[in-house]
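[INFO] parsing input record for methylmalonate-semialdehyde dehydrogenase (CoA acylating)
[DEBUG] input buffer:
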Amino acid sequence: MNAPQSPNSTKVEQVKLLIDGQWVESKTTEWRDIVNPATQEVLARVPFATVEEVDAAVAAAQRAFQTWRNTPIGARMRIMLKLQALIREHTKRIAQVLSAEQGKTLADAEGDIFRGLEVVEHAASIGTLQMGEFAENVAGGVDTYTLRQPIGVCAGITPFNFPAMIPLWMFPMAIVCGNTFVLKPSEQDPLSTMLLVELALEAGVPAGVLNVVHGGKQVVDAICTHQDIKAISFVGSTEVGTHVYNLGSQHGKRVQSMMGAKNHAVVLPDANRTQTINALVGAAFGAAGQRCMATSVAVLVGKAREWLPDIKEAASKLKVNAGCEPGTDVGPVVSKRAKERVLGLIESGIKEGAKLELDGRDVKVPGYEQGNFVGPTLFSGVKTDMQVYTQEIFGPVLVTLEVDTLDEAIALVNANPFGNGTGLFTQSGAAARKFQSEIDIGQVGINIPIPVPVPFFSFTGSRGSKLGDLGPYGKQVVQFYTQTKTVTARWFDDDSVNDGVNTTISLR
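[DEBUG] output buffer:
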């Protein structure tokens, strides 16, 4: 991360805040460069908003809520329909910006956008998603029904690794439920997020319903402690997610924190060998390993340990290059700091006795010599007390462990504190059923390496990967972004018989 900059030091684009429907130039004195990770070119400069600017964004959202909450569901749905059409129309343009600021390949950038687009499409189903319940005549002439009502101003704090998908997990579902929203994108790559925000305004989101502030810890803390914010969605590191959950909860807010991971793929020897190896390599090294659902651990069971040379061969064939270049499989990691951290963990693995099967530390990319590149890296002989196993590397590093039985593999995965995702590769239905029943992980793939559910369901990471009981998008997030009001009603005819005073708690 670069040191704070003066806004006048160079003539590059200055990212604006969005407050009450207006693009606002921040009055902050703290700015950071947005850097292309393949070239180190400064693409733009992002402000770290002042507390007063955060307050202004929240105040705009609070004012807008008074009318937006009463906007008919059909009108909200039509905005989502328009937004999904606009995102489809502009996907390639957004993907180019995303690739330049984050480093992903263009194909992966389009995938990032598409997985968020699916949530926008699902948000257009809010007419059925937000339905309450009704029970007639629960007692003598008494009906009971529930209403799902918006809760107010909500906020989202999003990470650098999915600057399109994760903001689209958050603000469309929040506002289609009748809430207003304050979004804080990652300060490392907010440009593609801002393009999506522009499209939301074009789709008809009214002034104040969606607001954007930028910044670091000061802005995060201002969001977590603001009295008018009712709920916070967070995706990012375990350290920051725990802080957001604790601080927000202490100030009376609903908080969902999706955090770090160490995702295992358990490989049985009866699995389809070619498909499994391709799936492992793609899930481990795609997006340069910068996915919270990346497969970072392969558990080879029994004779599947003989597949290690094939895994190494497949990984060694991946092309490392800038994300904008055709045929690229692995782009750069997001920053120099991220690269240093990944290299440090690779060094720790060597020092702690793991065998470095494939070394990506010294990869050279002609024409992009200043890029933050780390090539596919593979370790074998890893033990569960090594740092390359205990820590989320968030880089293109796959570690392998070997066990003799499926029971040992299940015990190994369950002993890890994280619980985001896991996969089993097998052709045995019995093994798959045993695995999905006994594994203590929130999201399970059977011959699927990255089991992120479609938006009809919800993201259900668990244990050390999640704080809060409701996940983002899908059915669970409708619960998160609404409050249930239960109404118990009895209506009397003018000539109804007076039963007299009832001093008991029961309904008659």
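[INFO] The chain is about 35% helix and 20% strand.
[INFO] shutting down worker
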